[in-house]
Amino acid sequence: MKRLTLLCWQSAIYWIWQERNKRLHNNQFRAPDAIIRLITCQITDRISSYRLKSLIASSRYMQFWLSTET
Predict the structure, then answer these.
(1) Cα-atom radius of gyration of the chain, to the nearest Å?
(2) 43 vs 29: CA distance, rounded Å
(3) Which domain of life is it from (predicted)?
(4) CA neighbours within 13 Å on the CB side: how many for 16?
(5) Distance (Å, rounded) from C-alpha 59 to C-alpha 63?
(6) Contact assessment for residue 11 and residue 47, using Cβ atoms and an 8 Å cutoff
(7) Cβ atoms 22, 28 nearer than 8 A
(8) Which letter does DSSP use for residue 30 in this model?
(9) Which of 8, 12, 22, 25 is least enclosed by beta carbons within 10 angstroms?
């Protein structure tokens, strides 16, 4: 699950930084719920892309991810 934790961390940092840059440079704002949806979609997509390398690991990651979603 270390890989999933790292993936969540990277995704959160990426989208928070994107939001920061939009606010500073373009004066555009997103709702916090929209950012959370972007993070969730990115993590789900990345886990799905692991299917090409390892179906078993991908299934485990997806099961764990979906069990933690609210």
Answers:
(1) 14
(2) 22
(3) Eukaryota
(4) 6
(5) 6
(6) no
(7) yes
(8) -
(9) 25
What dihedral angle (degrees, nearest 10) is formed by the CA atoms of 51, 53, 56, 58? -40
Residue 34: strand, helix, or coil: helix
Return the structure tokens found at 20. Answer: 């920061």
Predicted local distance difference test score (pLDDT) of residue 40: 94
pLDDT for 55 equals 86
Q: What is the pTM of this model?
A: 0.83
Q: How many residues comprise the chain?
A: 70
DSSP characters for 45-70?
Answer: HHHHHGGGT-HHHHHHHHHHHHHH--
